[in-house]
Amino acid sequence: KMTNNDMNLLLKAIDLASKAAEEDKAKNYLEALRCYQQAVQYFLHVVKYEAQGDRAKQSIRAKCADYLDRAEQLKEYLSKKEKAPPAKPVKESGDKGNESDEGDDPEKKKFQNQLSGAIVMEKPNIKWDDVAGLEGAKEALKEAVILPIKFPHLFTGKRTPWRGILLFGPPGTGKSYLAKAVATEANNSTFFSISSSDLVSKWLGESEKLVKNLFSLAREHKPSIIFIDEVDSLCGSRSENESEAARRIKTEFLVQMQGVGNDNEGILVLGATNIPWTLDSAIRRRFEKRIYIPLPEEHARSSMFKLHLGSTPNSLTDADFITLGKKTEGYSGADISIIVRDALMQPVRKVQSATHFKKVRGSQWNKPDVVVEDLLTPCSPGEPNAVEMTWMDVPGEKLLEPVVSMADMLRSLTNTKPTVNEQDLEKLKKFTEDFGQEG
Predict the structure, then answer these.
(1) For residue range 259-293, what is the model confidence (pLDDT) as tens digits?
(2) Beta-sheet strands, E only, within 261-418
(3) d(CA 199, CA 114)
(4) 110 forms bridges with which residues in the sheet?
(5) If we measure between CA atoms, which residue out of 294, 290, 332 comes closest to residue 162?
(6) Does 3.40.50.300 match the CATH number of domain 119-292?
(7) Domain map of the chain by residue range?
(8) Collapsing DSSP states into helix, strand and coil, what is residue 50?
(9) In which order are the strands placed within the sheet that holds 164-168?
C-alpha cells in the first residue's frame, strides 16, 4: 500500500506533468523541457520503489514514454534554435500539423513507419561472383533488375521487364543468398525484405492495409524490389478452413501485384519458397517467371568449397577440390558451408587435444610481416624437439595453428549428412515440369 510520502511523490509528478503541458502550449519550451524531465524522474521513482499494481505501472510507463518523446523533440528544437534561428515554430504537442505533411493521412504514415524497418538500408556485400553456379537464375535476375535501370530505353513499348519472379528449390540452395546479391548489385533500387511478421497484425483489417502500404511505399521509392522470403507462409492455397485474415492478405496481394488501377512499373516482386506446390494458383500466375534453383552441380560444389575456405591457411590442391565436389552428390550449398565450417574447427580441436608442441618458424598472427623462430604448433609425441605441454601452457601470441588439410575435410564430410530428401526433390522436379524453368 502507498504511504503518504509516496502519494505526495505521485501528486508532485502529476503536477509537474500538467505544468509541462501548460508551458509547452504557451511555447515556453525550455521550462516545459525541464518540467517534463522532472515529472518523468518522479514517475519512475514511484514505479520503481512503490508497490503499485501491474496495470498502474504499465500506464505510468506509457505516459513516461510519451513525455520523454516530447522532451526529445523539444531538446532537438532548442539545440537547432541555438545554432540558427528557425523559420517555423516547433509543432505543438498533440497537433497533427499540416506544415510538411499537408494532406497526409496519419494512418498511412503510421503504416509506412511500421514498414520502413523492412527497407534494407545497408547493402549486403555479396556480388554475383560470390554465388557459385545458378547461371540461369542470375541471368533472369539481371534481365529483370539490372538492365532496366542501366538501359531504360531498351524497355519501351511492348518490351517490359519482369514484374514477378519466384525462386523455388530445396532448402539451402541459395535462394535468399541470390536475393542478397540482387540487393547489392541493384545500386539505385530500394530493397524491401519482407517476412510474414512485417505484414500480419492482431487487428482485423490492418494486415491488408500493411500490404497496400508496402506497395505504395515501393511505388514512392521506385525502382524498388520487394523480396518475400518463404512466400508460402503468406500466400498458401485458399481453402475452406483457413482464417479470414489469411484470405484477406492473399486477396490484397493479388490486387496489388496485378490489379486494376495499380501501376507497378519499376517494381519487382521477388519470392522464395521451398514448397512451391502449396502456393495459391492465382499468386503463382502473378509470378511471371518461376525459376528452379536446383542442388549445386559438381563444378559448383567444388567452387563452393573454395569460396567457403576463403583465405584460411590450407593445404588443399585443385585436385582435392574436384574430389570433394564428386564426393558431395546430393548436398546443398548450406550443407557444404557446414562441412567447411566443421573442417575449419579441426585445427582448433588438434590444438585442444595436443599433448606435445614443437617450435617452428613462421609469421606472427598480429604482425604478418614479422617472421619469428619460436612459434609453437601441435605435434606427435615421437617427433624430434617435441615438448610435452598442453594448449594452456602456450603463450597467446606464440601459437601457430595447423593448416586445414584434405583429411580434415574428409573427416567433416563423414560426420555431415545431406539435409534434402528424395521425396521433396521429386515434388520440386514435378513442379518444374508443370510450371517452372531450370535455374
Answers:
(1) 656 677 778 888 888 888 888 888 888 888 888 88
(2) 267-273, 289-292, 356-363, 371-379, 387-388
(3) 9
(4) none
(5) 290
(6) yes
(7) 5-78, 119-292, 298-418
(8) coil
(9) 190-194, 224-229, 267-273, 164-168, 289-292, 437-438
How far apart (Å, rounded) are the C-alpha atoms in residues 213 and 116? Answer: 10
364 - beta bridge partners? none
CATH of segment(s) 298-418: 1.10.8.60
CB 127 within 8 A of CB 185: yes
Are 333 and 419 in contact by the 8 Å Cβ rule? The answer is no
CATH of domain 5-78: 1.20.58.80
pTM as predicted: 0.63
Task: Write out the three cell numbers for 327.
Answer: 564426393
Residue 420 in grid coordinates = 534434402
Q: For residues 93 and 90, what is the distance between their CA atoms, to the nearest angstrom?
A: 9
pLDDT digit string, tens, across residues 370-416: 778 888 888 888 888 888 888 888 887 788 888 888 988 999 999 88
